[in-house]
Amino acid sequence: MAIRKIVTVEDPVLRKKSRPVVKFDEKLWMLLDDMKETLKKADGAGLAAVQVGILRRAVIVDVGDGKPLELINPEIVETSGEQEGQEGCLSLPGEWGVVCRPEFVKVRAQNRKGQWCLFKGEGLKARCFCHEIDHLDGIIFTDRAKHMLTDEELSRLNNNE
User: Fold this and answer.
1) Residue 70 and residue 96: Cα distance in Å, rounded?
2) pLDDT of residue 130
3) Distances (CA, A) of 99 to 10, 108, 128, 152
4) How far is 76 from 74, CA to CA, in rounded Å?
5) What is the DSSP string of 68-128?
């Protein structure tokens, strides 16, 4: 396994639509393992393959509730409720915004062997599913932000938590 370089917002690859994964082989497994290591080192909650420069529909979600989830060719099949909260991105270090996302999300995705599975998430996990799947379509959280937070606002928010 290896730590991969996380692409930042200046790189136009982040605005491209990722292609479906069609080969479920050792090359994909290595990418997924590298993404997990990269996410862990960066102390993030999610990482899309495009964020490491690979235009494939694969994401890792790890919100600290157990084993990291690998979602390949994910699609949102159900949402409900609404949550508004602070959101950031490993590709935009130091940038934070207020984003509205569903409170509950159900995702249909393949696992590393190509089998279809359903994943459900509420709160932070739901937010992560949406954020990472947006990346696969070239959408960055700033596109959805109601408001980008200033350093003062961020400091005030973090001191109240």
Assistant:
1) 25
2) 98
3) 21, 23, 12, 18
4) 7
5) PEEEEEEEEEEEES-EEEEEE-TTSTT-EEEEEE-SEEEEEEE-TTS-EEEEEEETHHHHH
User: In the beta sheet, which residues pair with residue 120?
Assistant: 106
User: What CA–CA distance (Å, rounded) separates 101 from 153?
Assistant: 20
Tokens of residue 26, six digits: 């050792």
Catalytic one of 26, 82, 103, 132: 132
* Alpha carbons 140 and 131: distance in angstroms, whole number: 8
- The three-state secondary structure class of 9 is coil
Model pTM greater than 0.90? yes
Per the CB < 8 A criterion, the answer to whether 93 and 8 are in contact is: yes
Summarised one tens digit per residue, pLDDT across range 102-119 is 999 999 999 999 999 999
Tell me, yes or no, if 70 is annotated catalytic. Answer: no
The structure tokens listed for 43 are 């102390």
CA 120 to chain CA centroid, nearest Å: 15
> What would you report as the CA-atom Rg of the chain, rounded to the nearest whole angstrom?
15
Q: Is the pLDDT of residue 161 over 80?
A: no
Query: What are the C-alpha distances in Å from 119 to residues 9, 37, 77, 130, 136?
Result: 28, 22, 10, 12, 17
Contacts of 9 (CB under 8 A, 6+ apart): 91, 92, 140
